[in-house]
Amino acid sequence: MATAALDPAHATSPKRSVLVDWLTTVDHKKIGILYGASAFIFFLIGGLEAEVIRLQLMKPDTHLVSPEFYNQLFTMHGTTMIFLAVMPISAMFFNFFVPLLIGARDVAFPRLNAMSFWVFLLGGLFINASLLMNAAPNGGWFGYAPLSSRQYSPGVNMDFWALGLQILGIASLAAGVNFFTTILNMRAPGMTLMRMPMFVWSVLVTQVLVLLSFPVITIALVMLTADRNFHASFFSYNVAGGDPMLWQHLFWVFGHPEVYILIMPAFGIVSEILPVFSRKPLFGYSAMVFSMAFIAFLGFGVWSHHMFATGMGPLADSFFSLMTMLIAIPTGVKIFNWIGTLWGGSLQFKTPLYFALGFIAMFIMGGLSGVMHAVAPADLQQTDSYFVVAHFHYVLFGGSIFSLTAGAYYWWPKMFGRMLDEGLGKVHFWLMLIGFNLTFFPMHFVGLLGMPRRIYTYPSGLGFDGYNMASTIGALTLGVGFLVFIYNVIRTWRTGAHAPADPWGGATLEWAIPSPPQEWNFAVEPTVTEKDALWAMKRAAGVKVLPEPPLVSGKGIHLPSPSWWPLFTSFGILIFMVGIMVKGETHGFPFGPISVFGVLLTAFSIFKWSYQPVDHPTSH
Amino acid sequence: MSTQSVAHDQPHASGGKYVQIAVILFVLTALEVALFEVSHEAGPTGFGALLASHFVVILLALSALKFWFVAMFYMHLKFDLKVLRYVFASSLLIAVVVISALFVLFTYNRTLWWATGVWK
Amino acid sequence: MTAAVLDHDSADAHEEHPTSLRIDSRKLAIWTFIGSECLFFAALITTFVIYRNSHATGPGPKDVFEVPLVTAGTAVLLFSSFFVVMALNGAQEGNRKKLLLWLSLTVLCGCFFVGMQVYEFTGFMHKGMGYSTNLFATSFFTLTGFHGTHVAIGTLWLGTLLKDAYKGRIPPNKALNLEIAALYWHFVDVVWIIIFPVVYLMSLFAK
Lengths: 620, 120, 207
Ligand code: HEM
Ligand SMILES: [Cu+2]
Description:
The structure holds three protein chains of three kinds.
Chain A: H1 18-23, H2 28-57, H3 67-102, H4 110-132, H5 157-185, H6 198-229, H7 244-278, H8 285-298, H9 314-342, H10 351-374, H11 376-382, H12 386-416, H13 422-448, H14 465-495, H15 533-541, H16 565-581, H17 593-611
Helix pairs in contact in A: 2-3, 2-4, 2-14, 3-4, 3-5, 3-7, 3-12, 4-5, 4-16, 5-6, 5-16, 6-7, 6-8, 7-9, 7-10, 7-12, 8-9, 9-10, 10-12, 10-13, 12-13, 13-14, 16-17
Chain B: H1 15-41, H2 46-53, H3 55-74, H4 82-107, H5 113-116
Helix pairs in contact in B: 1-2, 1-3
Chain C: H1 25-51, H2 61-64, H3 67-93, H4 96-126, H5 135-166, H6 175-205
Helix pairs in contact in C: 1-5, 1-6, 3-4, 3-6, 4-5, 5-6
The complex binds protoporphyrin IX containing FE (HEM) and copper (II) ion.
């Protein structure tokens, strides 16, 4: 019951400094923006690393960077792009849009959500801090044993990697529980599962993958940490008989689902964009849902296709070959459905559609080289060569990044209330499409010619030179493309046109509310009667665009109150991990004082957190 | 999904039922230990030897039964929403598949294991 | 800006808002977490099974495991599952005495189990089996240590709930606070139901 004395404008946000506001926020939209901003900065760092790699490889026998630093560059590039760029940029969209798309006021556990973000940010900063110490991880993004062991990597490089990924895993698992619960339990009345927007489905499937695969890497990293810091020998050959193969298996039991964690949200975003810009519902909705679920399920049974070269024997090779080829079927179903959505639509050639179309084309190419890898004997020729590098960039860059960029152009107006410039967007698209193909298409050839991945230079005369030059020129073009994007963002920030609530003629609920949305999202909880809820509402009202929704005061709307404890909990976790690396004197106890302090801080913060009321006291 | 039945706040089963389950769990554990002792001491023939030759299977079956009782009754899966059952069962399924696959890969890797007869 | 501000008093969102599945989100969340935990223990158990015969140096299962001690621990954990379900029953009925009695017993069991493990581990150390003596030891300590940490966390959690119950802060409409802790506790118990035969009995039985 709101008392009359309360000023309605401040009922839910008493005066606090902007900084405190962001540090303690539990609003899913702000957290989404925090995810997006930090992930984009990490993306730029990873991109810079890639440019240095490409400059080093531009010509044969180059010595721009040392071999040691080159190892750090490719490891940090891969780790950054996967865990600090693509995953959290996806998380930005999960955070901002899942509650809006299902008609909810927030996620199920707003404070846990804030914790996920802070843990992610601290983990990302932790890994990158290694660069400042000139001790960045250097064992590749999959940290194969025994290269990652203390014996072969005596510095702290791989400690940064193992502990950093451990921190990031906590963030992902917490977010996994949160979004799984949110999607199943926080839907607006009438929003049945089979009426959910496809993006929400893709997030649900992604979270299932996170929940079931991240625990495995957590354990693998615990064992790696034990090997490196507690004299265990899980993964190193010695008298005790450790087996490096165990690392490979555990890593890829996680690793293959992980690649689907990277691509599923991209599937979802494209499935939102295509219908809106073809003015036509998504073709084969339920086939799309089931193929995603099928991909996720099969995704747990194919991990050893990354290990054909280890000599697992004919039975295992054939089994994993067949399972991998099977995955191509539901993937193909999705591609045909996207094309079916476009077919006969009245296409609106706006920037988001450009990027979505780019996604389809590039992802098909990545899928095709994927099926080639699935053929075990052929893969023996391709594995660890630039051919594999080409494959996973076609699926990750051509797939995930194209789609995430499409999503950025599509949802920018909703997030920030301003329209990105169309002309610059198209320049960005063409630079990216041309630059991308110029960079990665030649890698197929140079790979089959025998150029191995992860070498810091090569001699001339092997036929690699021209291809590498092309790749470097392409990479620079890509860089320019992203500079155009940054310019577009800055310009939009200053002078961009104000976005209406529904600039694209959208099909889903987020377009029914003001741009940017108010803190409580929906003043009145929406009721959903069919798929493409907003189109249904427009049809019912007999209009093409609904009238601009008014701003409301939000008096009496119950919002979760801000909290410091998620931030403190995250610091506790970080300090615990740092303490494992910087052990100090432990008097025979496995953990040093820093770790103990970290645990105590975490426990204390969680304790305070659980006794802090969820809701803002003034709104009662 | 939203048509699912409403979960009640009332207790899901009576105290008496819980006591019964406790007794069953206790007996099953005793059986496990007994099975272990008997098979461990077993001679080459007779009932003990029979048990010993199926030790792993029987033991796993007994613990699966215990697992089932706790999950179904103490964790209320039998009375609660079906979704919860699906969540748990599908996670378990993936877990069991991964364990079994890794076990096979490590035990029989690099050999044509069906030709060696080691699985008998 | 303020011109368009509408007042919004009608839809008072304070009221218990029905969730899509008609269950509390916390319950769904704890089950989701439990599902995820299955994979934690899957990875650990697999590692143990693969390495349990790797004890060329130092003691192996037959040199250290003591069935009676672990059986006692197992029984304690099983009983604690029963106790906590009775405590929950008490909470739901609003029977504070019943709640307090059974919940204290549960916490006691948790402490006893952790104590059993500390005693067991110390014994192993005295028999020359340290964390890194051999892979059997490492994977054993990692798996059971991980489980033991779960028991310890569960005991702490139930302990805070015991404090709440003592202060009368767990009325029937808040029994869910205990229910989710109990679900976690049962899960820790079922994991032990697997660990006991697979780690102890089967390793002792193997040639
Ligand atoms: C039709 C679908 C796909 C198939 C059949 C497929 C198959 C494969 C195979 C067999 C490999 C191992 C190649 C080797 O190391 O020799 C591989 C590597 C890889 N794939 Fe895919 N893939 C598919 C889709 C994807 C998707 C959607 C992604 C991510 C968005 C992805 C990301 C990767 C990555 C990152 C690697 C390289 C891992 C590394 O060695 O660092 N793949 N793929
Ligand atoms: Cu894969």
